[in-house]
Structure formats: structure tokens, C-alpha cells
Amino acid sequence: HAINRLLREVRGTEEEGLLTQVVVRSMAKAVYTTENIGHYGLSFPYYTHFTSPIRRYPDLMVHRALAHYLDGGAPLDRERMDVLCKHSSNMEKMASDAERASIRYKQAEFLLERLGESFAGTISG
User: Fold this and answer.
1) Residues near 88 by beta carbon (within 8 Å), at least 6 away in sequence
2) S-S: 89 plus which of 1, 30, 31, 119, CB 3.0-4.6 Å?
């Protein structure tokens, strides 16, 4: 992959952090879906993801679906799963937006006490 090659070329340079951040931001946000879309970054044609089922509802859905399948269960209702996937993706986006807003608020609060000071930094985006 050209992106991986680029990131290897800048490894250890001043630009590494900025380029890594720009590359990650340019990628489409993952969404929950019943469609097999593989995994772009890993170059896998088939992919599923789950962690501890107490963390996210979609993880619990995958655990339940696998257990159902392994027990010889009938196919799950795809339309219902699609609805749950879309809802989970929307809720995850809302949580992410709320987290970013909270961080921006705390950054502004921190900087309010430092009006007039100069800071070194890199601006991207």
C-alpha cells in the first residue's frame, strides 16, 4: 500500500506525527454493518471485530450471533440487525461528538487563564 510506504518513509522525522494524523483523519470512519466490507488497513477480504461484550452493544451482538450460529440456530433477521447496526453507528458518532465538544470546552477553559501568552505549535486541518 502506498500509504504504508509513505508512513515508513517519514518514520522518525519531524513530519511523522503530522502525516500520521492527516492519514488517519482522511480515512472513512468505520461503521457497523451486516455487509462484509473486509478491512482496508489489514487488507483482509473478510473481517469482524468484537471485544468484551460489556463494552459496546455491537460487540454483544457479534457474540450472540456467533453463539447462535455455533448452536445450529437459524439465520438471524438481517433487517433487524441492519437497524441495530445503523443505530449503534449513530450512537457511537454522537458519543464521539460529545467527547470532542467536552475536550474543546476544557481546552478553552485552560487557555482562558493564559490569554496573551505565546505558544509553539503545528496547525493542521
Assistant:
1) 32, 56, 57, 58, 61
2) 31
